[in-house]
Amino acid sequence: MTNFTSKNEKLNQWVQEVSKMCTPDNIYWCNGTKEEYDKLMNLMVSTNSAIPLNKRKNSFLFRSTPSDVARVEDRTYISTEDQSEAGPTNNWLKPSELKATMKNLYNGCMKGRTMYVIPFSMGPIGSPLAKIGIEITDSPYVVCNMHIMTRVGTKVLEVLGKDGEFIPCLHSIGAPLEPGQKDVSWPCAPMEKKYISHFPAENLIWSYGSGYGGNALLGKKCLALRIASVMAKREGWMAEHMLILRLTSPEGRQYHIAAAFPSACGKTNLAMMQPTIPGWKCECVGDDISWMKVKSDGRLYAINPEAGFFGVAPGTSYNSNPMAMDSLKENCIFTNCALTDDGDIWWEGMDGAPPKHAIDWKGNDWSPDKKDVAAHANARFTAPAAQCPVICKDWENPEGVPIDIFVFGGRRASVVPLVHQAYNWDHGVFLGATAASETTAANIGSIGNLRRDPFAMKPFCGYNMGDYFQHWIDMGDRLGDKAPKIFYVNWFRKTESGRWLWPGFGDNSRALKWMCDRVDGKAGALETPIGFLPRISDINLEGLSISNDDILELLKVDSSLWKLEVQDIEAHFAQFGNRFPDRLKKQLEQLKSRLG
């Protein structure tokens, strides 16, 4: 029984087509109200899917099955007619083959369940930078998470109107129910039947079999990055895996910074940083994704297309990210965290001593003497961005904020200095294209353990990455002298004995201040083979207990190590063949020449 239809005939027709294929017992059009959210959450409490948390108002804990705990990269596809369009960094299947396989899986997959139609806006509703999606799902967990992560409801349908464009997002957990069959607390399909599929030519997303995170919340990585990146190239804008922050100087000068880091490199921490330099203030515009368009003044303006934070819980604490912790006090969804005896959540790395007893993410008794972790390593929190104490007052400005600085970075124990600046836009694109992070604790100086993650977009670029690099170059040509300045950072340098050289967290504001001063022409720098580096006197170290030797090490460029780095970069670039931009080849040759 359907409760609603839209004025958009194309949408109504699509809903009917999906209903006919998936055969749900009911169809429900989501209106985005608090009453709707509460009703669905109460439904999941009654079926033992959701556990209310006594210590956090209107907050709930979910436990997934061990086979459904994270994004499944090897089951994620970019489906284009020609494999070269997807490129070497994506899994590829031909659309006709993939659709045939998935239609067979979708056939009757929502039997015994309700089909929810979720109208959602990525970005403030009505913003010229926003896009509308419609997610169809049979998971009330997905509906509630989408309520937090996006703008859901009838207002979206009003903006869509009779003939507006939307991105169709079809999702099913892939667990039909026969009459009288008892449901499980986390229904999903086996791994071999999971598919997260993108059809860029049609701006279409199909997901089957998983109920978790980016596999199921299709507004996030699927729409906001994989499909949006293709739309952005087509339409002349940028969809990037970047936090956005506003840094304000003591004089009131505002700088807007967009930064891209691979996972485990402190992205959310930086987005909500508490600067240690007196008088400087940081505000969060977004912690994960940035959509940017060139406006009439020739500058690049960015919005955070999301409405919430979907963050990794383990390691988040008042020590590492106090503003994130303060964002989690109420109205949150927690997934795969531990449950304490007094009705709160807990995870490894949280402040204070571990609980003497808890129920772990698998539902088993846990105590600190157990070998297994209490919370899964990818345990998550879903929190409304509006609850963040340092959320920027302009975070929902439909016009966006003007970007002054781009930052790339990675986790490197050696080789890469604390901070350096690109010589020009093309050199900055080269820095983004070579971004890398260490995935294991391998020997210092070794490059065998490096994972190249260009622009932190390797898992999220919806088309050939060689073409993506060219799009960045094209955007720079268009922006000209109004292009943001580009920098590269590494907070993770260590001594040979394994001691951290840089304190990180709020002290990262010292590197950001140098960037801001460079934008304003107020700070000096040294020319080095890899870019402009600050001198010790260029960085504000006031109040920081750090030795001169450590600072010298942090700002060192070892040409012999960089020559080894070049070899790895050459192998990385080779995979893109004739799609690789000539201007980046030139940048590599210039780097070799500068290294001697």
Detailed description of the structure:
- There is one protein chain.
- By secondary structure, the chain is of the alpha+beta class.
- The protein folds into three domains: 9-30 and 68-235, 3-Layer(aba) Sandwich (Phosphoenolpyruvate Carboxykinase, domain 1); 240-304 and 396-595, Phosphoenolpyruvate Carboxykinase, domain 3; 308-387, Phosphoenolpyruvate Carboxykinase, domain 2 (Beta Complex), CATH 2.170.8.
- Strands 1, 4, 5, 6, 7, 8, 9, 10 and 11 form a nine-stranded mixed beta sheet that branches.
- A hairpin with a 2-residue loop joins strand 31 and strand 32 (531-533).
- Helix 11 (425-433) packs antiparallel against helix 12 (465-479) and helix 15 (559-574) packs antiparallel against helix 16 (582-595).
- The termini are far apart.
Shape: globular
**Class of secondary structure makeup:** alpha+beta
CATH architectural label of the largest domain: Alpha-Beta Complex
Q: Helix coverage percent of residues?
A: 25-40%
